[in-house]
Amino acid sequence: MCEFCATFGSTKTTDRDASNPFFAGFFSADAIEAAVNGAASKKSKKHRTNTGVDDEEGDEEDDDGNDSGYIMSEQGKERQTQTHGTYLNDIPSELSPYYRSVPLLLRGLLFSLSTAISVFRNLAGKHMRLRFIVLQSLLGTLVSNILVEDLLFAPSRIGTEKLASKYNLPSPLSQLETVVPLFSKHSSVWDIKDEEDLATAFEPFELVHYLRYDAPLKDASPPRFDVIHASHGFGASSLSWLPALPTLVDRLGARVGLAHDAPGFGFTSRPPVNCKRDLIRYTPATSAGLGVSIVQTVTGGAPAPSSVVLFGHSMGALSCVRMGLTFPESTKVKIVLVSPAVLFKNESTIAKKPPTITDDQHTLASNDNSAIVTLPKRLRLLLEQLFFTIPKQILLEIPLSYLLKRLVGNGKLWRSGLRAAWGNSSLVTENDVKRFSWPSIGKGWEKGLVNFALAMASCKDSEVELLKRAVSHPNVSLFIVHGTKDNVVPISNSRRLVKVCGGEDVVPLIEMPGLGHDPFEENVELFVSLVKEEIEKT
Fold first, then answer.
1. Close Cβ partners of 26 (under 8 Å, ≥ 6 residues apart)
2. What is the DSSP secondary structure assignment for residue 509, as one 8-state letter?
3. DSSP 106
4. Which whole number is the average pLDDT over 324-344?
5. What's the pLDDT at 250?
6. Inter-axis angle of helices 398-409 and 445-458, to 10 degrees?
7. Tell me: the pLDDT tens digits for 6-17?
């Protein structure tokens, strides 16, 4: 059994006939037709079930020229997102990702009440000073407005399952699945130290939200790539790849395009963190395991795909590279890192060999250097509650969650952030803002972000060494795309990465003049053209 098959753990056998979509590695014409038709039927059913959007109605809207409420500025019209439509649903009108305005009459009432209380308090004293009355009135009005906003006009929060059943998911391409993260012996799992860590890592995620775009059947020729998968960056979700994913699938000749929400982001389940061990669930290694598992779902547990293209944006580059290291040597893996946030830190850990997972039993490989001292379970749980769970909630989770709620809830953060991150701020449209604001209606998104930040802080592996391992793999080819006006991760970081990995002969660097941190959103057509050109060179 190949390493990839063992990783997937599939014990099913498939009849090797012409109608089987996995016969001959997707290269049978009948198999391709059966696979595409079957996937289209399955996707149609899921879209109606998970998003509440009827495909037939959606087709009628396209025919009428309705772009699902897409609003584009004059300069933004130069972008090619309208080629495939937006594939973006409107946020349900009953839900709001932002704080709603307190009515003017209520504001006046609060001010009057605060002023009356201030005057009464000063009358009770020996001296009545006007400036104290004014200051106390203003402070009282501010505090009372904040309390009223949080009690009556706060942003909406809704669970993913309820959102899917009562309203609709963000996109007609949205899918929801229960997913178990999968790893192979090639996976770098620095975060796992013992058997209990291992059991935690393999706990299923109740719901994982991901996008799936199946290429339309044009002819009987086989696809060039079996799967395209994209990983998003910090603060974003799979929706950030929504403008580019269909175009990438069609132009690169792939069978299907995928992009999932990493743990802590989007509409993927946010597992509770009751002890430090639970932070494993929010690491890039676990996100990579989810991506591999989704690939398995799409391929039906078949043998490893013959060729894949993996995209990783910003911090998503860490998950993307880990996915690339999972595939066996029989799979040709092309990795495209976009504005990668691969930082030069923890270089002292380069010489340390990471723990691994065996394919057959998903257990830790033996490590002569690991001497694990275990405490009684009850005592360990008590200590974790005292020194981790309670301080985390009081000092970090509660205040940071409220701060994030306030920052994102004012309705200006996403627009200001995108305008600062993009090379040309005038290209930011309402549709771009909506893709980023959609996930903020998800229940518990603030806690998920805090947990992800804590998980990243606990990771001690070398990101640069991880990149070097990928470059040295015989079946992996890798190149970087970076905008020259990136103010988030300067292009100088990618130039340095290329240098330490052996130069542009080993890791080509494509610079996109005038573009910022999100070039695949800022100029879809140019991004796809440059990526296709580079891929065709190999």
1. 32, 35, 222, 223, 226, 255, 305, 306
2. E
3. H
4. 91
5. 93
6. 120
7. 333 333 333 333
CB 256 within 8 A of CB 262: no
Sheet holding 254-260, edge to edge: 174-179, 205-214, 254-260, 225-231, 307-313, 332-338, 476-483, 509-512
pLDDT digits (tens, 9 = 90+) for 137-169: 888 888 999 999 999 999 999 999 999 999 999
Q: Three-state SS for 466?
A: helix
User: Residue 506: how many CB atoms within 10 A of its CB?
Assistant: 14
Q: What is the mean pLDDT of residues 79-95?
A: 70
| Calpha distance 325→7 (Å, rounded) | 12
Tokens matching residue 28 = 């049978």
Q: What is the 3-state secondary structure (H, E, C) of 421-478?
A: HCCCHHHCCHHHHHHHHHHHHECCHHHHHHHHHHHHHHCCCCHHHHHHHHHHCCCEEE
Q: Which of 489, 485, 537, 472 is nearest to 511 (CA)?
A: 485
Q: Which residue has the tokens 């929801």?
A: 176
Token pair 């178990």 in the structure block, residue: 180
C-alpha–C-alpha distance, residues 361 and 220, integer Å: 40
- Cβ burial of 330 (10 Å; 0-12, 13-18, 19+) is middle
Provide the strand spans (E) within 348-507: 476-483
CB 188 within 8 Å of CB 288: no
Residue 142 is encoded by which pair of tokens?
Answer: 């501010």
Kindly report, residue by residue over 245-281, the tens digit of the pLDDT: 999 999 999 999 999 999 999 999 999 888 888 888 9
Provide the 10 A C-beta neighbour count for residue 88: 23
pLDDT category of residue 53 using cuts at 50, 70 and 90: very low
Decide: helix, strand or coil at residue 454: helix
Q: How far apart are CA 149 and CA 131, in angstroms?
A: 27
Please tell me what DSSP assigns to residue 422: S
pTM of the complete model: 0.76
pLDDT score recorded for residue 75 = 37
pLDDT at 28 > cutoff 90: no
Q: CA-based Rg of the chain, rounded to a whole angstrom?
A: 25
Instruction: Give the pLDDT confidence of 456-501 residue by residue, as tens digits.
Output: 887 766 788 889 999 998 999 999 999 999 999 999 999 999 999 9
Q: 121 Cβ partners below 8 Å, 6+ apart?
A: 136
For 238, the token pair is 């799979």
Alpha helix ranges (H) inside 459-523: 463-472, 491-500, 519-522
Residues 368-408: pLDDT tens digits? 333 334 555 556 556 666 666 677 767 778 888 899 899 89
How would you class 384 by CB atoms within 10 Å of its CB: exposed for 0-12, middle for 13-18, buried for 19 or more?
middle
Bridge partners, residue 312, by sequence: 231, 337
Residue with tokens 């906003």: 149
Are residues 338 and 314 in contact, defined by beta-carbon separation less than 8 angstroms?
A: yes
Name residue, tokens 């009355």: 133
